């Protein structure tokens, strides 16, 4: 029996703890947390959204839930194991040695959402979640019935992490070193400069969240976790078949800085958007890529102008998804600038 409890986000939000048993990475008992938005008195639609966060993140974007609700979707979000609501003091934040371990909570969350709504499910993910979800869908699509047969209608990826940013040698020699150290010393922290510029940009922009669950400079990176991510990147680059149409939203530019300045508010200060564009075609099926001028790394935490553009592009794509029908397959990649005709 499922027992929903009040969530920290207040009225209309509930949470459900999903027991996952013993951690395969040796950190004791683990859980995930499913959050739902269910406004009082609203007629519950059959179709739903399931949202998955990124690294150093958890679900707090109430305006995103409310926007999807206005478009006729029930909204659910998943805090993965050792993240946000699901993390305990014994857990290394966000630590996994294999991204496929997340299949357990993703499978269960999808089952629960489908059981509660009875309709199709749209998947939405940000950053590292935008890598985790396609890998899961590729595995799911290999099972009888595929992803569409499990009621998944499409995927929206918000600045997905498709490759390792930084100099080219990090993606070559660096990845070899990460692979070795990730096997031998998985919980060792990677020496790196910690920047809080993106976090300061979000807070300066008025976005409020729990700094214990989402520190301004991020959680430390471990070799084992980054090894899992690089192995996921390699799988993506070989080509996936997620089985449903996808929308990719990203900023038009990337920039890093040692200290915050207002220009950081209008770029992706975390990932290289050129890599997102380069690897987007690896998802398979029908892919639409829309660069949003002036967007932050989390496109849905952008300043008001780019945020409005992102929601307009999202709604336009959702209308097309409804008209297209998720059963029609067409392997193509489309790119347009926000505001261009569909």
Automatic annotation (TrEMBL):
The keyword Hydrolase applies. SUPFAM superfamilies: alpha/beta-Hydrolases. The keyword Transmembrane helix does not apply. Residues 44-255 form the Serine aminopeptidase S33 domain. Pfam families: Hydrolase_4. Keywords: Hydrolase. GO terms for molecular function: hydrolase activity. InterPro entries: AB_hydrolase_fold (IPR029058), Hydrolase_4 (IPR022742), MAG_DAG_Lipase (IPR051044). PANTHER family: PHOSPHOLIPASE-RELATED. This is Alpha/beta hydrolase. It comes from Rhodococcus zopfii.
